TrEMBL record:
A Pfam family annotated for this UniProt entry: PseudoU_synth_1
The species this protein was found in: Mediterraneibacter gnavus (Ruminococcus gnavus)
This enzyme's EC code(s): 5.4.99.12
Known function: Formation of pseudouridine at positions 38, 39 and 40 in the anticodon stem and loop of transfer RNAs.
Isomerase among keywords: yes
The name this protein goes by in its record: tRNA pseudouridine synthase A
Length: 252
């Protein structure tokens, strides 16, 4: 038995997310495509785990997967074979052996989400499928002020439509903003996110950055005094990277 880790990227446009919602298992998903390809190549039914589940239409630049297999196929050969049988909107960037303790989903990690923004007098017809077009760039200082209210450990149920009775504590670590005259990328780093939470937080930052909302509204959202249900468009949102933070060398 060997444990393998895959790093994959995908265009999420036509997929119903990483995994279909309950009672919608017949929808096309990234998990379904990769699982089918692995079963075909390894000739066994494997259980596939991912670091962070992307929502419908959301892309990934650095998704991490793990699984165990009895196959003796070398990681390099598996990577090559997968890229031959997977659809063109899914690619395996890396495949390697890892410790049997490694688990893409359960190991402590930081997830980094990215939102791509473009501005100008007219939309860029070649990039508008993967970038959010705005008339003007949002104010980075306003968004950093907003993040000062978001940073830290909070009950984040208010930022996801998924109903939870008990508090769901998550920690947000940093907001990095890169921009030029007509482009901007937001990089939001935190622990595990609830469904649709990355899109909601990104839109909240945008609304504050464009002056639609004030940063002082965030404490009242956490307190349940006000609700917020905005969502940044999925076509401009990416799972940018996964950073594992375990100190145990035998986890890898």
């Amino acid at each position: 038995m060997q444990t393998l880790m895959l790093t994959v990227e995908y265009d999420g446009t036509r997929y119903a997310g990483w995994k279909a919602a309950p009672k919608k298992e017949n929808l096309d998903t990234v998990l379904g495509r990769i699982h089918t390809a692995l079963a075909r190549l390894l000739k066994e039914d494997i259980q596939l785990f991912c670091a962070a589940k992307t929502d419908p239409g959301v892309h990934a630049r650095g998704q991490i997967l793990s699984f165990q297999t009895t196959s003796s196929l070398l990681p390099s050969a598996l990577k090559s074979s997968l890229n031959q049988v997977l659809p063109q909107d899914i690619a395996v960037l890396d495949a390697r052996h890892v410790s049997e303790r490694f688990h893409a989903e359960l190991l402590p990690k930081h997830c980094i989400w990215e939102l791509c923004i473009k501005t100008g007098p007219t939309p860029d017809v070649f990039r508008q499928k993967y970038t959010l077009f705005l008339p003007d760039l949002p104010d980075p200082l306003r968004m950093q002020e907003a993040f000062s209210f978001l940073k830290g450990r909070h009950d984040v149920r208010c930022f996801s439509p998924v109903k939870k009775k008990k508090a769901v504590m998550r920690e947000l670590y940093s907001l990095r903003i890169e921009h030029s005259d007509d482009e901007m990328q937001l990089f939001l780093e935190g622990s595990d996110f609830l469904p649709f939470m990355p899109a909601t937080l990104m839109q909240l930052l945008l609304d504050i950055g464009t002056g639609t909302l004030d940063a002082c509204c965030i404490p009242s959202i956490f307190a349940g005094e006000h609700s917020y249900s905005g969502h940044a468009p999925a076509h401009a949102l990416y799972l940018h990277d996964i950073v594992y933070i375990s100190d145990r060398k035998d986890d890898f």
